[in-house]
Amino acid sequence: MGESPELLQQGRGLVPVRRQRPAPQGLREMLKARLLRSCSCSVPCAWALVQDLLPATRWLCQYRPREYLAGDIMSGLVIGIILVPQAIAYSLLAGLQPIYSLYTSFFANLIYFLMGTSRHVSVGIFSLLCLMVGQVVDRELQLAGFDPSQDGLWPRANSSILNGSAATPDCGRDCYAIRVATALTLMTGLYQVLMGVLRLGFVSAYLSQPLLDGFAMGASVTILTSQLKHLLGVRIPRHQGLGMVVRTWLSLLLSAGQANVCDVVTSAVCLAVLLAAKELSDRYRRHLRVPLPTELLVIVVATLVSHFGQLHKHFGSSVAGDIPTGFMAPQVPEPRLMQRVALDAVALALVGAAFSISLAEMFGRSHGYSVRANQELLAVGCCNVLPAFLHCFATSAALAKSLVKTATGCRTQLSSVVSSAVVLLVLLALAPLFHDLQRSVLACVIVVSLRGALRKVWDLPRLWRMSPADALVWAGTAATCVLVSTETGLLAGIILSLLSLAGRTQRPHAALLARIGDSAFYEDATEFEGLVPEPGVRVFRFAGPLYYANKDFFLRSLYSLTGLDAGRMAARRKEQGSEVGVGEGGPAQGKDLGPVSSRAALVPVAAGFHTVVIDCAPLLFLDAAGVTTLRDLRRDYGALGISLLLACCSPPVRDILSRGGFLGEGLEDTAEEEQLFLSVHDAVQTAGARHRELEATDACL
């Protein structure tokens, strides 16, 4: 590449001159420079670090009260009104008392207000995380000797599996349940903070949207199943482990005759009202400035009816019970419990991080601002770490509340402070008013909130038509969640997504290209009509990377489409020791090649080409095995008198070819300009010119 630009313009047109790259910095120098940058301290650097960790310090200075305040207050009030009934209801999923859900909603909103980068995401209790927390709590309660299906404060009298300090006289069932939940929450938050510190925000990108949708669908079916006992007012054991959903349905069928008539009637009425209100809200959404607070109205009316009708006393209907006011003293989660739930916290950390980052990026794109995935991990992680000492459980961003927040005019996270103020009012004064609220009503609120996730099942046919691989990931994740467990479903979804990705790169589309009329463009001859094949040249496109897992498929596709197995024919030539050149002129005359040699010489004649051009535009990357494959392919084609040319190589691919020894080696030590071309048409024209020149030379000889 040392020639002048004038010389490079001769021959086959313009050829770009590569820039001289600066000498690469050594590892020691690079680490030293980064260490100096990170350790340098000044007032601007310290303030920038504070603004990065607490983004509220940046945007609060630019807050415009006249434009933003009204919308933030309105959306904050609406979200706060929605949070109160949902917090009380979701406590059933987590197996905890309602007061802890209110604590969680209060602290999570305040912390995300300070640390979040999204302006519209609502962080708080999330049904999927509540389900996963509840499953861990139930398991630990059983191991500690408590009955998760009972509401008593003491372990079973005949239990013989009490282990040390797991259950003590000063800690009853509810006390031990929140200890398990806070230990799980702290471990979840620590994982998320660690991911943020290590800049692992990209990891959530590997949880694809079909995986998340399938997981939401399967978990929603699990949540629906867990709430049926409250809808019917029956007592059944809370199953754990494999086949939990199936075993719960069997228990419900066996106990259907013991259903509480009062709870069944209440559930039917509440479901009818809530579903009808949701449908009306969706239909007349454009005409409603704020969504109808149907859940709150239903809970208020149901509480009044239960209180004055004495439904718990007369019909044995289960009620929420005492909900204390005020805040409890902070408590450090037990290290022993943290060790027990460390593995369970991994799934919660991944699910919470994936949903939070995806929602933040979705709202950021739709409203024209950027979010930082690593800071979102830190924010959500701190929403779990700090409240874990204040009797809270795992939280993340929630789609439904975030959509409501956006629809009601939210402009900044100041609306989260308003929502926390509403929850604080309930915590300090209004919580005892919900004492007589029936649990069946809370179950109705949970079931209706699953409507959006359950409707995603109708998207499966469309997803199958668009991408069968994504549809299989969706269906496999959902089915595993329902039939096995939610944690296994998440693991199965990740494995299926990775297999889908590997399958797409392992067997990408391969085709022969032909010329579009008299233009300089080439396309797939099997997809378009009227294309003109170039005589004596085969243009091959491989729409994927070339690496160790698909190199054999690459060769099979090339040999199949061109009709010539160059590797096998070159090996036969080597075995026969034949020096006969292969071209379009046919085998040499007057020599007895034997049956094998004659057949080997006749195959290229039937193929009818002298050059193979590989369109490298879709070639994303090469590894060592890919470079070796191209080198061996060029050698085999060269043994048969066929040239191999590459076109449209990106600079990274060129560098890999150069470092791998593909360029600058061969029989004639050809230079880079003789093997790599800027376009397919350039390569085809050069191949034709070379062949005509070779034929003219042969004729003269």
TrEMBL record:
A GO CC term assigned to this protein in UniProt: basolateral plasma membrane
Top-rank taxon: Eukaryota
Subcellular location: Membrane
Every STAS domain range: 535-687
A Pfam family reported for this protein in Swiss-Prot or TrEMBL: Sulfate_transp
Sequence intervals crossing the membrane: 68-88, 94-114, 176-198, 248-276, 288-308, 345-364, 376-400, 412-434, 473-499
SUPFAM superfamilies listed in its UniProt record: SpoIIaa-like (SSF52091)
Membrane association type: Multi-pass membrane protein
Annotated GO MF terms: chloride transmembrane transporter activity; oxalate transmembrane transporter activity; sulfate:bicarbonate antiporter activity
CDD domains named among the record's database cross-references: STAS_SulP_like_sulfate_transporter
Family: Belongs to the SLC26A/SulP transporter (TC 2.A.53) family.
NCBIfam families: sulP
Official protein name in the record: Solute carrier family 26 member 1
